[in-house]
Each structure stands twice: as C-alpha cells, then as structure tokens.
C-alpha cells in the first residue's frame, strides 16, 4: 500500500500493517489491511478515542471501513471504543462475551479509577459491544489477499487473552497485554499468573525467532524480549 502511516501518527510494521500507541495509557491499536477487508486490533478506552481511530483508519485506507475487530482482552483501555465501529464483526477469546456483558459496571469503575471522565465511561459502558465470534483455539480470517490467524493463547494477563499472527516476509504478532514494554507486566485481579508463562511460550511458537512482537503497551520487541519477560514472570510467580 502506498500509504505513509507516520502522516497519521501511526507506526508502519510491514506492508499493510500499522499500529498506533494511544495517549494516556500507551495502549496499542493495530490495523491489518487486505484487498477488501481490514482488521483492527483493540479499539481504545472511550467512544471518542474509538471514533478517532475509525477516522484515521478510514483515511489510511482511502475511505474504506474497518470490517473486523479483534479484542485482545476485556480491559477498559482496549475495548470501550468498539461501539464506534458500526457493522464490524467483533472477535474475542471464549468467555470475553460473558465478562463484557456481566461486568459493564466494573469496566466503568475501572475506567474512571484510571482517569476516564465519568460521562465518557458511562457512555461507553452503556453501548459496549461484546464479540459476535468467540475463538476457542485458532481462527483464520481472510481479508482479501491476506490471511490472519486469531489465536486464543491465554489465560495469562487476563482470563481471556487473544493474539493475532499476521504472516509475511517477517511475521507480526499482536500480543495484547500478555507482553508489555513500557512498564512491568500488570497482573490485576483477573490475571492467571500460573498460566502466563505458557501463554508467552505459545506466542513464541506462533511467531518464531524472527517475528516482530507488538506489546499491548510500549515499543515493538523481538523474540528475545518476549522470552526474557516470560522467564521473569515465571520467577515472579513461582511457576516453570
């Protein structure tokens, strides 16, 4: 694609693949563009942020719309912008639908606690979109001349962690918060520490040694970084 991602504040990862580090929480949103479809990975922390991502994505694609969304895990800074993408097919790990449907109030409280304005948090929680399609193992999506693999690699950072592998001359792995670069990995009350190292082993199996790994927060990293974080988490939580 003859697009200058940087002109829109995005980082080009490979041909037709880019990501943006969103303000405040440094969460990643990523766009994978095929010939006639496009996948967005995570949607931001508010409807306003989601609408901004939507407008930028359409500009990057010459007016085309995002057709598919993959949600990495059910935390506010990754899911509350989803309703801004009307008509998109939404994917998540098995169980994410239950969490998002049952715990809207918990997401709202968490967002406000982390600095989202009360009105913005209420608005986003009221129209929160749960996934239409649930991934229990792996799911291949055809975007038109390009396939992507959605993989349920968790639990780990949460009970429902979904990663995306984009094949190419150098694979790109969208990791969500299973990997964090701009700070220590955060283990909240829904984390499954005993399973987290195994989830990172799965990411490494998916991408291999030469892949670009895109954390949920921070700069893109390599396999050595993911392996080192895996070993540190295993030490931290006392698992092998």
Commentary on this structure:
The mean pLDDT is about 95. This protein is an alpha/beta fold and about 240 residues long. Helix 6 runs antiparallel to helix 7. Helix content is about 30%, strand content about 25%. A 7-stranded mixed β-sheet has the order 1-2-3-4-5-6-7, with no helix packed on it. A 5-stranded mixed β-sheet has the order 8-9-10-11-12, with helices on one face. It contains 7 helices and 12 strands.
Principal-axes shape call: globular
Ranges with pLDDT <50 over ≥5 residues?
none
State the helix count. 7
Tell me the major beta sheet. 7 strands, mixed
Our estimate of the beta-strand percent is: 25-35%
Q: Quickly give the structural class.
A: alpha/beta
Helix content: 25-40%
End-to-end separation in angstroms reads 43 Å
Looking across the biggest beta sheet, what order are the strands in?
A: 1-2-3-4-5-6-7
SSE string, helix = H, strand = E? EEEEHEHEHHHEEEEEHEH
The number of E-state strands comes to 12
Please state the average pLDDT score.
Answer: 96
Radius of gyration: 16 Å
């Amino acid at each position: 694609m003859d697009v200058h991602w940087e002109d829109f504040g995005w980082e080009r990862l490979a041909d037709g693949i880019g990501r943006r580090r969103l303000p405040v929480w440094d969460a990643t949103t990523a766009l994978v563009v095929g010939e006639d479809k496009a996948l967005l990975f995570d949607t931001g922390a508010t409807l306003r942020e989601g609408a901004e991502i939507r407008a930028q994505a359409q500009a990057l694609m010459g007016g085309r719309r995002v057709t598919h969304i993959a949600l990495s895990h059910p935390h506010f800074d990754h899911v509350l912008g989803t309703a801004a993408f009307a008509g998109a097919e939404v994917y998540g790990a098995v169980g994410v639908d239950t969490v998002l449907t049952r715990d809207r109030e918990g997401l709202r409280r968490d967002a406000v606690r982390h600095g989202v304005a009360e009105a913005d948090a209420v608005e986003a929680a009221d129209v929160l979109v749960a996934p239409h399609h649930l991934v229990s193992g792996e799911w291949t999506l055809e975007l038109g001349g390009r396939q992507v693999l959605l993989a349920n690699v968790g639990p780990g950072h949460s009970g429902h962690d979904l990663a995306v592998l984009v094949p190419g001359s150098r694979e790109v792995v969208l990791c969500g918060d299973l990997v964090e670069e701009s700070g220590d990995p955060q283990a909240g009350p829904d984390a499954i520490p005993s399973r987290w190292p195994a989830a990172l082993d799965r990411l490494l199996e998916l991408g291999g040694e030469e892949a670009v790994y895109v954390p949920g927060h921070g700069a893109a990293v390599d396999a050595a970084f993911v392996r080192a974080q895996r070993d540190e988490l295993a030490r931290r939580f006392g698992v092998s």
